[in-house]
Amino acid sequence: MQPTISAERSVRRVKFRRLNFGKAFIYLILTAWAMTTIYPLFWIVNNSFKVSRDVMNNSFGIAWNPVLINYDNAFERISISKSYVNSLIMSGSTVLLVLVFGGLAAYVLSRFTFRGKKAIFSLLYATLLIPAFATVVPVYELLIKTDLVNTYWGLIMPHTAGNLTFAILVMAGYMATIPKELEDAAFVDGANRFQMFLKVFLPISRPVFASASIFVFLWSYNDLFSALIFVNKETVRPIVALLNEISSQYGTDFGLMATAVSLTVIPVLIVYLFISKYIQKGLTEGAVKG
Fold first, then answer.
1. 3-class SS of residue 47
2. Burial bucket for residue 284 (CB in 10 Å: 0-12, 13-18, 19+)
3. N or C: which end of the chain has fewer CB within 10 A?
4. 225: Cβ–Cβ under 8 A, 6 or more apart, which residues?
């Protein structure tokens, strides 16, 4: 009897050591992640409450006496509010168009069987391999011919076209997991295809719509390359292009640069906080069931 008890205790000790080692490893990884992601954000926000001289002399020190002059300059001297509005209009419109057209296309590809369906999927996957830089010249020529350069549509249309493929593939994979019984029940109730999409597939697919929207918003919001080429006019300049102007015109005002970066990140964090609970579910549901 005694040897059995000792053996059980030994097994418990081994499990306890493994458990402690596992927890320590997880905490180590989380700490490293926090140092490389959360701390840089804190560093930027903290330096936004310092004057440029203090940022250069003690950039890692805490702003115990915060000043708001950088925020005043951001809204008065460089008109960051106008760039805010431009970015939100362009990115918001891009998200809306991608969800509407991408959702309808995903519904057709996931629930209908027709000739050429596999070829369409192959074409969609192939377009993901084409770098965005390879399409700049033809897209710019099209925008010139249609007089869309330096307009909101001059950035909305390329962003919509560039993000549609990703959105269609992700949403189609999710919609393919929806049980066919729901579709049959909607038919029995007299719903047509469009009503079925609005009343059945759209509510059930909210997680994947939320996931697609946050990625599309981030990619369009942070696209500096396209903004510098397609909308370089001050009246329609998005906020990422404004940051580039600050770094060139006000290169020595590090406090102003930190403030502009902090204000740029705020909309992304707000959008993410509102729909974060849907993101993981939307991206993994189709992969698990499909």
1. helix
2. middle
3. N
4. 132, 133, 136
Domain ranges of the chain: 2-47, 69-289
Angstrom distance (rounded) from CA 52 to CA 48:
9
> In the structure, what pLDDT confidence band is assigned to residue 203 with cuts at 50, 70 and 90?
confident
Distance of alpha carbon 219 from alpha carbon 217, whole angstroms: 6
Q: Distance between CA 66 and CA 151 in Å, rounded? A: 38
**What are the structure tokens assigned to 88, written together?**
């939100």
What's the full length of the chain, in residues?
Answer: 290
What is the reported pTM? 0.77
Q: How far is residue 253's CA from residue 150's CA, in Å, rounded to a whole number? A: 28
What's the pLDDT at 285? 54
HEC profile of 8-23: HHHHHHHHHHHHHHHH
Class of domain 69-289: mainly alpha
**Residue range 95-118, pLDDT digits in tens:** 999 999 999 999 999 888 888 888
Q: Cα separation of 238 and 268, whole Å?
A: 14
Query: Do residues 207 and 285 make contact, with C-beta atoms less than 8 angstroms apart?
Result: yes
State how far the alpha carbon of 145 is from the alpha carbons of 79, 133, 154, 159, 227, in Å: 31, 20, 11, 18, 18
Which tens digit of pLDDT belongs to each residue from 241-286? 877 777 655 556 778 888 888 888 877 777 777 766 666 655 555 4
Residues 6+ apart with CB under 8 A from 275: 210, 213, 214
| Mean pLDDT of all residues in 151-174 | 91
| Inter-CA distances, 168 with 126, 164, 172, 233, Å | 13, 6, 6, 32
Between CA 175 and CA 27 the distance in angstroms is: 37
Q: Are 254 and 55 in contact (CB under 8 A)?
A: yes
